[in-house]
């Protein structure tokens, strides 16, 4: 039996989950941060506080952007799974991307393993951005002390 993460549908489901939970975490923290600052009456009056706020915002937005790309990849893997063979599914994805003018039509269809490796690289980049975000959010209370 093939492991779930080695099939198009299984991998697409995994990608969708990897796009969802960081989005929820970052959106909740970014939505609550201004409210917490207003409730505490604290404004960034020093350069470390302003720098941490900027790093948290930029890294949070990077997580959201990468999550959108990962979710788009999940949809492409679902499209691939709707075809009989790996080559036919890959050709359909390449055709769809070319028609949307997102990527030029490749000369040779990439394998499923290559496509999965590319999606995993996106998840890794998302995790790096999420780590930077977590560090900045954790350091924020220290910088915002009066």
| Form type | elongated
Poorly predicted regions are none
Q: From the alpha carbons, calculate the radius of gyration and give it in angstroms.
A: 20 Å
Sheet bearing the most strands, described? Answer: none
Give the termini distance in whole angstroms: 60 Å
Order of helices and strands: HHHH
- Mean pLDDT comes to 87
Q: Roughly what fraction of the amino acids lie in strands? A: under 5%
* Structure classification: mainly alpha
| Total number of domains | 1
Helix coverage percent:
over 70%
Number of helices: 4
Instruction: Give the strand tally.
Output: 0
Keywords: Membrane, Transmembrane, Transmembrane helix
Organism: Mesorhizobium sp. WSM2239
Protein name: DUF1772 domain-containing protein
Transmembrane segments: 20-43, 49-70, 128-144
Summarize the structure.
With 146 residues, the chain is mainly α. The protein has four helices and no strands. The mean pLDDT is 87.
